[in-house]
Amino acid sequence: MKIKKITIKNFRSFKNSTTIDFEENYTTLVGKNGVGKTSILEAINLATSFSFAESKIKPDDFNNDNENIEIILEFDGFFFINIPDGWQTRKLPSKTIKFVAKHREKATPGKAFSGIFTADQYVIPYEFTGRSNLGVEDNKNIPKSVIKQDNKFKFKRENNNEVEVSDQMLIVRNNLDNFPNIFYFSKERDKDLKPGYFTTFQKILDELNWRFFKDYKTSERNDYVQKWEDIYSFIINKVEDPKQSKIINPLKDKIKDFLGEKFKSFEISLFNLRQPFDDAFFSLRENDKIITLSRMASGELMVIAYFLLKLTSELSKEEIIFLIDDPELHLHPQLQYKLFNEVKSSKFQHVLATHSDIFIDLGNWKTIKRLTNDGIYPNGELLKKKYGSSVNLEKELRGHLDDIKNLCQDKTIFRREDNEILFCEKCLLVEGPNDKYGLLALANKLNFDFSKLTIRYCVGKDNIHFYQTICLAYGVNFFVVYDQDTNGKNNLIEELSLKDKVFSFTTSFENLIGSERLYEILKKIDELDKNNLSKEIKDCLGNINKFLGN
């Protein structure tokens, strides 16, 4: 089961109702800091945390204090809420969870203290008129139909009686079947690797303790006890007799006198014989040398936790969804590549929020969502715009993006470092390295600040329009500089450029400088008097500087 889309309103930076579609098995959220990447992961986690959700709400989570936070999650498959119906339990199918958080208006009945906020998750039932229309094999206890009338849901029993479902019945209280496990990897990577309330490691320890005790209680316990005594005596006798005269015996005598005879067996225990995994922990062990989690890198901890959750879910045949904030955190590039390959090949859904260009796959453009202060890209309206009329290749932007994969452009044109475009504030597209480094050197000559500018060279003029397509689709503010050579202006580049954000040299940049080789270009620029620069070069740099808002 996958998350199909999420709608967020009044949560952190999302003031107005905002919908994000998840079209593929994995989604990469990109954008500069503060645009809401982590907030999307937090919203999903909040809407699916069915215990003590109100304790996770902070005052700053409300964009507007006078409105409620609303988060709606829609899935691509059915889960079921169990609601009482007399002597039976009805299973109402649903694909949607709605989370609502409010500022508390009155005290909680029966409690001495009340929290600041209230938070509830509601199931929105799926409307249908016949069980066969659901496509669900096991439809036992599913009503004959579910409809909505006057803002109330009603289901139909076998005798055709209709029963109204109250809002209280639709509140989630651990009464869901077939709902996916959703694991959120925040920057605190290691919580699922330690014992604790509802952690994965604790579940493993409980399982191991159960398996051990099942055998222990049906076996010769004396054998276990004797082995325990042998190990205990061997270890305890290696130290300076704390068990006998120094500490334990005097303490035991005092406590026995004070609290009673049962304390005659008081000791320093090394582990619980009946539940030996109570104090277990993950580690690296070579003979008697142990490296605990606390001494491992946080990147390693994330990888360990990730595979632990993945393998346990596969064993239990449960649905699982991973939310990972900064998957690159403390992972060197080779491990980032390996992790991203694992994500792309996994059957489980992943939603990543990242600042690493390694977790970008332009060949699968639908997996990328770029967040900006102006909105989320690409969007439906933008994808329908047509480009390419100037060269008789007109089609919707969506079609040009599909060509990246279909025509192997992700392997023959775009390089991994080109993914940097999706993270930049403003982008300059040029033909080659001569233009990139030459223009930077000239800007320094004129004391122009290009520090906020990401410059990508497109390995030739004929490739520039491919990069323009990426910029248009993902809302990247871009400027283009190219050479007319002897062919005049390039119609396609001009068509894809926005307003006045394009400049073309009437011949070539190299001709204007007087050299074809980069090191010679840079040397000549270094020796140039800025007052002797050609008008074309000054106009080009001036337009770029204006584009930057300097």
Task: Please characterize this protein's 3D structure.
The protein is of the alpha/beta class and 550 residues long. Helix content is 31%, strand content 24%. It contains 16 helices and 23 strands. Strands 1, 2, 4, 5, 6 and 10 form a six-stranded antiparallel sheet that branches. β22, α13 and β23 form a beta-alpha-beta unit. α9 (397-406) crosses α12. It is globular, with a radius of gyration of 32 Å. It starts with a strand and ends with a helix.
Radius of gyration equals 32 Å
Helix tally equals 16
Average residue pLDDT: 87
What's the shape? globular
Biggest sheet: strands, sense, closure?
Answer: 6 strands, antiparallel
User: What class, by secondary structure content?
Assistant: alpha/beta
Tally of strands: 23
Helix content: 25-40%
Per DSSP, what share of the residues sits in E-state strands of 2 or more residues? Answer: 15-25%
- Poorly predicted tracts of residues: none
The rounded distance between the terminal residues' Cα atoms is 49 Å
Mind sketching the topology for me?
Layout: E1 3-9, E2 18-21, E3 26-30, H1 37-47, E4 69-85, E5 88-103, E6 117-125, E7 145-149, E8 152-156, E9 162-165, E10 176-177, E11 181-185, H2 200-216, H3 221-236, H4 242-246, H5 248-259, E12 283-286, E13 289-292, H6 298-316, E14 320-325, H7 333-345, E15 349-353, E16 368-372, E17 375-377, H8 380-383, E18 386-387, E19 395-396, H9 397-406, H10 409-412, E20 426-430, H11 433-445, E21 453-457, H12 464-473, E22 477-483, H13 491-496, E23 502-505, H14 509-513, H15 518-527, H16 535-547
